[in-house]
Design a protein that fits this description.
single chain; about 15% strand; alpha/beta; 3 domains; about 600 residues; Rossmann fold
């Protein structure tokens, strides 16, 4: 942002009356001059009057030049035209001052014009061409000043903070999913994102919908084995962490002894079940049998002697200690008691012919879509959502390491909607920037700063926000410290203010009024302005570019609008239920389940 834009702003140091007076004098002089010369031409004068207005005025006053007869009529006409123009300009100026809201008037103090080149279509297209991708980038919104559409490039990861019903789904999540050039995945706690994008995504490749809580009425026509992710002790710990974060309240204070030991025991169970290729439900069975040495024996056979010893140690611990540790392990794995959940993560029997989701194949195919749906709240099913998202990104990262430049050939676009509620991924802040370099552009959507702090802590949330190359604030948030931080990021401008002083007549001379002008640093958008941000406005912060005021790109403003409406009509659960009620026979023979799996 140049100094000119931020400092030469505010009222002019000259009084508006000064400009009005100059304009009025000029208009009168021009009108008289034009009227005299036009009338002289109409009256057939041989010698035209002088064009010097001062000399002409003197000649008329001394009667050296007579007033043309037609000049009076022409001067009246010119006067009427000038008055009409003045009225029109005054009306337009008043409308310009009153119509836009304050943030729009501040847009010219933020990035606009050529300053937006790095995030314009042309700017991000250079990055896309370098990676051989036709799609220039992921749309962010239209700059209010100039109307230019700004983008996030394929190297950028994004974080949005906006209150409820503030553009997150309709203007950010849906356009992002529809702009994905290849594979993509999305988490959500409502069916709207799925219903709006499903029809277009199934034209690209196979659609997989993980819906253990029946948000869109999906039955488990396929399953995914969480133990396929457990290939090391570290990954066993990460999977355990996903399960723990799903059931433990953020404000809860875990027991330093029993909770820690219980989590370590679950890690050992997961590792043993993965090595022995047993179903995930065996881990729960072991947690209910404190004298079962099977997991220790498996670990011992595979050379994990220390982990095996830790399990034996818990088995032979004092009864009270053993009961507390195993009780913690059972609580962590208690979701496996629900058959509606285990059907999504375990085979249903020896004759189970359902397709098993292979994440390594999904990222190599580069065309599929994975929807991860779960209700809000802290439940075990959201732990599976976290685990599946975590495992998918890990598979994509592993594949990217062997690709040219260490990036996926086609980006894997991810939308983590309601991340703080259903995808409580503890390691996400530390991985954010790294995923951008691997061709995994993520968009994390939160309802507030405190919501992120609840999941990742103050340092983790600050890290996630700072690591994002593109950050969007969509309003609807009352968190004063966060808004004050945004106010500082947006910056100040030097506002010119006037103060008048009345000098009364006295001994020193006659009285009068004096006016002085000062420059006062003023926030471009104050905390109050940000709190009151209109629903159709947002502030975008992109790396290397000054903040920009944007208006959202809603899906109904895109070329996909007709297809999105058709998708909603077909896949919105309310519409499906209405059709099924109208035609029960069609509902019985409907093949939507097979279509959902894509097979």
């Amino acid at each position: 942002m140049s100094a000119q834009h931020r400092h030469a702003t505010g009222p002019s140091p000259h009084s508006p009356l000064t400009y009005i007076s100059f304009a009025l004098i000029a208009a009168i002089a021009v009108s008289v001059e034009v009227a005299v010369h036009a009338a002289a031409a109409l009256d057939g004068w041989r010698h035209q009057p002088t064009w010097n207005p001062l000399v002409l005025a003197i000649d008329l006053a001394r009667q050296r030049t007579r007033w043309p007869q037609s000049a009076t009529v022409l001067l009246i006409i010119a006067g009427v035209v000038v008055v009409l123009l003045a009225v029109a300009l005054a009306w337009l100026a008043g409308r310009y001052r009153k119509a836009p809201q304050h943030p729009d008037r501040a847009a010219r103090l933020l990035a606009h014009g050529r300053q937006l080149d790095p995030i314009s279509k042309r700017g991000v297209q250079r990055t896309a061409q370098r990676f051989g991708i036709k799609q220039p980038g992921l749309p962010v919104g239209y700059a209010v000043a100039g109307g230019k559409l700004v983008y996030a490039s394929w190297e950028d990861v994004q974080t949005d903070i906006a209150g409820p019903r503030r553009l997150k789904t309709s203007a950010r999540a849906i356009p992002t999913i529809l702009s994905a050039p290849g594979a993509c995945f999305a988490t959500s706690n409502k069916p709207d994102l799925y219903a709006a994008t499903r029809l277009l995504r199934e034209r690209t490749g196979t659609v997989w919908t993980f819906d253990p809580e029946q948000l869109v009425g999906e039955s488990p026509s396929w399953w995914w084995n969480p133990l396929s992710y457990v290939t090391s002790d570290r990954k066993a710990g990460e999977l355990t962490g996903a399960f723990v974060d799903a059931y433990r309240h953020p404000d809860a204070k875990p027991d330093a002894f029993f909770d820690a030991k219980g989590e370590k025991l679950v890690e050992a169970f997961l590792r043993a079940a993965a090595l022995a290729q047993r179903p995930l439900t065996d881990c729960y069975l072991w947690s209910t049998r404190p004298d079962d040495e099977t997991p220790a024996e498996i670990l011992e056979r595979h050379g994990l002697r220390l982990m095996a010893a830790s399990v034996i140690g818990e088995i032979h611990a004092p009864v009270e200690q053993r009961g507390g540790v195993y009780g913690t392990a059972e609580r962590i794995l208690s979701f496996l008691r629900d058959p509606d959940i285990t059907a999504w993560c375990c085979p249903t029997g020896r004759e189970d012919r359902r397709c098993q989701l292979d994440l390594n194949e999904l990222v190599r195919e580069g065309t599929d879509t994975l929807y991860l749906l779960s209700k809000e709240g802290r439940g075990s099913q959201s732990g599976l959502v976290t685990a599946l998202a975590m495992a998918l990104c890990d598979a994509a990262e592993s594949y990217a390491r062997g690709c040219p430049a260490g990036r996926l050939p086609t980006p894997l676009v991810g939308v983590l909607d309601e991340a703080a509620n259903i995808c409580r991924w503890a390691a996400l802040p530390g991985l954010y920037t790294h995923y951008g370099s691997r061709g995994i552009p993520l968009l994390t959507l939160l309802q507030g700063w405190s919501q992120g702090v609840e999941v990742w802590g103050p340092a983790g949330m600050a890290k996630l926000w700072s690591a994002a190359n593109v950050k969007v604030f969509g309003g609807g948030v009352d968190e004063e410290p966060f808004l004050a931080g945004l106010e500082k990021l947006i910056g100040d401008y030097n506002r010119v203010s006037a103060s008048s002083t009345v000098n009364h007549q006295g001994v020193g001379g006659p009285g009068g009024r004096s006016t002085s002008w000062q420059l006062a640093p003023t926030p471009i958008l104050s905390t109050a302005d940000l709190r009151a941000l209109a629903r159709d406005r947002a502030v975008a912060f992109a790396a290397g570019v000054a903040p920009v005021l944007i208006r959202p790109l809603y899906w109904w403003q895109t070329s996909w609008a007709a297809d999105v409406r058709a998708s909603i009509e077909r896949y919105d659960p309310a519409n499906v239920a209405r059709r099924d009620a109208a035609n029960p026979r069609l509902a019985m023979t409907d093949d939507r389940v097979g279509e959902q799996r894509g097979g």
